[in-house]
Amino acid sequence: MTTDLRPELVEERLEPDSLRAEPGTLRPEPHTLRPEPHTLLPEPVEGRTSTSAVLSLPKGSGRMSLVVESASGLLSIFNQTGILNPADVHTAENVCRIGQETDEKVKLALALTVRALRNGSVCIDLRTVRTTAFDETEAAIDLAALPWPEPEEWLAAIQVSPLVAVGADQPSGRPLRLAGGLLYLERYWQQEELVRVQLQHRFTAPAPEIDKSRLSAALQRLFDHEGLAPGEPDGQQLAAAVSALGRVTVLAGGPGTGKTTTVARLLALLRDQPGPALRVALSAPTGKAAARLEEAVRAAATHLEPQDRERLSDVTASTLHRLLGWLPSNRSRFRHDATNHLPHDVVIVDEMSMVSLTMMARLLEAVRPSARLILVGDPDQLSSVEAGAVLADIARAPGPPDADLGRRLVELGLLAEGEPAPVHGVVQLTRTWRFGGAIDALARAIRAADADAAVEVLRSGASDVHFSEVDLESAVTEDSARILAGMAAQVREAGIAMLSAARAGDEAAALAALDRHRLLCGHQHGPYGVLRWGLEVERWLTESIPGYAEDGEWYVGRPLLVTANDYEMSLYNGDTGVIVQKPDGIRAAFARGAAAKLYPPVRLDAIQTVHAMTVHRAQGSQFDTVSFVVPPPDSPLLTRELLYTAVTRARRQVLLIGSEEAIRRAVLRPANRASGLRHRLADVADLSAPMAAPTTTHADNSG
Questions:
Q1: Do residues 560 and 319 lie in contact, with contact meaning Cβ atoms separated by under 8 Å?
Q2: Given 3-state DSSP classes, what are the helix, strand and coil percentages for the chain, each rounded to the nearest 5?
Q3: Which residue, among 374, 324, 318, 385, has the nearest Cα to 349 in the 3D structure?
Q4: How do residues 439-469 score in pLDDT, each as one tens digit?
Q5: Does residue 146 contact residue 130 with C-beta atoms inside 8 Å?
Q6: How does DSSP assign 340-367, residue by residue?
Q7: Nearest in space to 621 (alpha carbons), one of 312, 373, 350
Q8: In sequence order, what are the beta bridge partners of 426?
């Protein structure tokens, strides 16, 4: 079998399998009729606004840019080059019209701020935005040729605009805020300020009351230092002690460093304290991540002594949305908030890298000030799909070591005299327990920004790391065909096992087979994208399995991906499942801890077939084998965090398909998410000052 890698094939097959009619039917799947989110245009407030597609089809993107014909000046130029999409332009024009702002420099700044949110940034820096903006179509763009305003003139125009509140102390009510040289939409400024103040209050709050002798005994009983070299510090023990002694703990570490094992032991440690049993909430951003957290904590508890195991017998995990109390009438607010706190004494949130700024703000206002908050995750992973990089900001925020915490850790024998105490309760786990070998070595090299070491691991010939240099934009060669044939064999093996289990009604085995191999991409479109590779995988399966996917829309063995949160069904963006045959008909099975959850397919919405997926959607999951299609070297999406996240999704083996140049660029290019939180966490000068109260006015269109 050969596989054509030429871009001509990609252009002919841009639509995903879910947009094509199933064999034997004339209609496409209903849930795929929605346009891409970036192409949805707001209704014009007045006049006639029209758009026309396509000005350009950037190389490797496979997508077309929509142009707002009514736009003029800088908005028009930046829209035509693909930096701004129609929603950015319409928002800027409408807000400026309402606020009677005519300066095109202000319009451009507002549009770029709206656009930044879509790409994960909370704000923009007008002095550097010209070096960080990139095309929505995943292709590089010549930024230097654009007519960027001079930074000082731009800032001066912003400062006198009626749309902008200048400084942190100004009352709210305007759609934009300029603070610390950063331009925010007011809503996101308020959220960042809430997170900053809440965290700083908790950092400086009096320490919880603790029975020191009992704490010391439990630390020795629960952490026996097994597997550690003589004299090697026990990071897990230190993290547990910090969680007992402080209000906020950040338990940071990569896959396999023992984060959930530490969570189980620190819970036993806390519940060993005298007094009523602490009320504990375990939570994660998605249903799958919550199920994995609960399962991992229960598995870790089986290795504890009987009295400690009993203390964890009632522990369950839920999604953050369920914990906070989702309100069907209000998608941005929850039942638990600043006026109705959660009842829990300890709140633990796993997979914190997936938590957005907005969700963090809602969580902090809902957690009682006296409760312990323990944030668990890997700050080196990709951040939330939505705006913010909260975990990375907290874990890397500057600040002085906590002297009081340090003194108490010295008394417990966990720190030496003069050894610096944790900053902001952050404890970084570095020892890898679950997997080692080349995957761990590669992850460490990526995290350390050591491109030479990363390439050395890739070329070492290790059995668990494979690197295949394939030019996906050139004609197929004998070597590239051989490489893809090997990947296709793994895909077929997993697909056959999944289909066999699904036909037998064994949803557990089908879901396990689904996670046996996963093809990940950095792009959605083009020769490096999910759409192209999803079609490729479907073709491999169709060629090797007679009758595959010929039973209609909900064919048995169809792998599923949830693309939007469905709170009523407890299904969340990124959850994966499979269609299985049961005695009472076909069902969609989704992993939820020890037992899968089954749904009638007719009740599902926002579902698509998943033969390949983006790295972002793979967060919170792991697979036996991962194949990663590395974006081209000039891709703006190619970052250290993208590569690291892709590699660390693999339990046993990872295959990287791309070029050495792309690998080197990824390792040396950190993601650039603009945020003021990291550096503002060190500023406690105005901690006593109340936050500006939100005020809604006719001109507040801050998103």
A1: no
A2: 40, 15, 45
A3: 374
A4: 888 999 999 999 999 999 999 888 889 998 8
A5: yes
A6: B----SEEEE--GGG--HHHHHHHHHHS
A7: 350
A8: 250
Q: Which of 104, 101, 98, 125 is nearest to 184 (CA)?
A: 125
Q: What is the rounded distance in angstroms from the CA atom of residue 271 to the CA atom of residue 309?
A: 11
Q: What is the DSSP string of 287-348?
A: HHHHHHHHHHHHHHHTTS-HHHHHTTTT--EEEHHHHHTEETTEEEEESSBTTB----SEEE
Residue that has been written with the tokens 């097994």 in this structure? 226
- How far apart are alpha carbons 542 and 547 in whole angstroms? 7
Q: Are 218 and 394 in contact (CB under 8 A)?
A: no
Positions of the chain with pLDDT lower than 70, given as ranges: 1-65, 132-140, 331, 433-436, 474-476, 593-594, 684-703
Structure tokens at 242: 């910090």
Q: Which residues does 436 contact at the CB level (< 8 Å), separation at least 6?
A: none
- According to DSSP, residue 25 is labeled -
Collapsed DSSP state (helix, strand, coil) of residue 410: helix
CA distance 112 to 115: 5
Question: How many other C-beta atoms are found inside a 10 Å radius of the C-beta of residue 471?
Answer: 14
**Which DSSP state fits 608?**
E
- Residue type for 192, please? E
> Which residues, at least 6 apart from 584, have a Cβ–Cβ distance to it below 8 Å?
none
Angle at 641 between CA 255 and CA 290, to 5 degrees: 45
At 678, list the tokens: 């990291």
Q: Given this model, what pLDDT does residue 323 score?
A: 92
User: What six digits make up the tokens of 107?
Assistant: 């319009």
Q: Is 368 helix (H, G, I), strand (E, B) or coil?
A: coil
Helices and strands (H and E) in the chain: how many: 24, 24
**DSSP state, residue 589:** E
What is the pLDDT, as a whole number, of residue 575?
Answer: 84
Answer whether 325's CB lies under 8 Å from 343's CB.
Answer: no
The pTM (predicted TM-score) of the whole model is 0.80
Which residue has 């020890």 as its token pair? Answer: 594
598 near 586, Cβ under 8 Å?
no
Which residue in 430, 354, 423 sits closest to 394, CA to CA?
Answer: 423
Dump pLDDT digits (tens) for 91-122: 999 999 999 999 999 999 999 999 988 888 89
Residue reference for tokens 């036996």: 624
The residue type of 157 is: A
Distance CA 353, CA 374 (A): 13
Q: Is 545 exposed, middle or buried (0-12, 13-18, 19+ CB in 10 A)?
A: middle
CA–CA distance, 588 with 567 (Å, rounded to integer): 17
Q: What is the separation of C-alpha 334 from the centre of its chain, rounded to a whole number of angstroms?
A: 21
